[in-house]
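Workshop exercise sheet. Pairs work together: one partner reads the sequence aloud, the other fills in the structure field after running the prediction. Swap roles for the next sheet.
Pair: D.N. / O.F.
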Amino acid sequence: MIEGLKNNYGYLFEEALLEEINDVAILKEFKADVTIIETESYIVSIPLLLSGAIKILREDENGDELVLYYLERGDTCATTLSCCMGQIKSKIRAVSETDVALLMIPKQKMSEWLSKYKSWQEYILQSYHNRLQEFIEAVDTIAFLNMDQRLLKYLRDKALVNHNDIISVTHQQIANDLHTSRVVISRLLKSLEKQSKIELQRNQIKVLEL
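Structure field:
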């Protein structure tokens, strides 16, 4: 596990911190499309992503969801950090976008390392900054972009985190992620195809403009 840590976090953390993480962290692996963190659950561990991508969603009282942002290799989730610090329930749901390997660190270590390691302090602060920027981008997307623009951005983001311009996804799954109807998504996908921005295939979409 220490090699995976060094490959993904060696440029961020000093040797002593890497060794402490290796001593206390639990390696978890998830297949794609598995719920990792459920809404209204208490967070007891801080995730460090070794490989893959995780989709962060907000869920309303009716169970409808909206994708907020993605976590990739080298990231952690600022929302889980806040929940750990405040001992409050999670307000988001985390789902593996691809096969995922991550390290779960006991939440008690978060505050301990903040005073002990400057690199950890900088990493946590940078994570909060990055996630805040992504929250602002998500709000701007909803507030200022038309649905066809939101859809194209969604497809591009999904292609980038999967490192593949061909996305395996159904129209209904896209509709769920964008909090709209399948009929609307199907119509807009056909329009984007006519504009030569995507190519529709059976349960797959090729993104032509990344």
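Discussion prompt: The two ends are 34 Å apart (CA to CA). What would you look at next?
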